[in-house]
Amino acid sequence: MPVTVILELRLKSESVAAARDVMRRALQDTRAFEGNLATDVLVDEADEAHWLIYELWDSVEHDEAYRAFRAGEGRLTELPPLLAAPPVKTRYSTTDI
Length: 97
Hints:
It is a single chain. The protein has one domain: Alpha-Beta Plaits. The protein has a 4-stranded antiparallel beta sheet. It is α+β, with helices and mostly antiparallel strands. Helices cover about 30% and strands about 35% of the residues.
């Protein structure tokens, strides 16, 4: 069953342009990763340094494999210095409501 992941990023205001470059490259890997059904970046209209990364995964297992990739060989070493706060990841299950 598909799962949705929201990754909330709060960037340093002076780092928004650099973050765009880093994420543009990084999200190519995310979108190509097995099980990724969709990935979009939502930017807060009132605060360009507040982003939500919306990811739709084919299964929890696909999401976990991707997180393992990002914790290892796919680690984004350029991103942490651009952040104003630690990222917040929340996983949501689809229901029949």
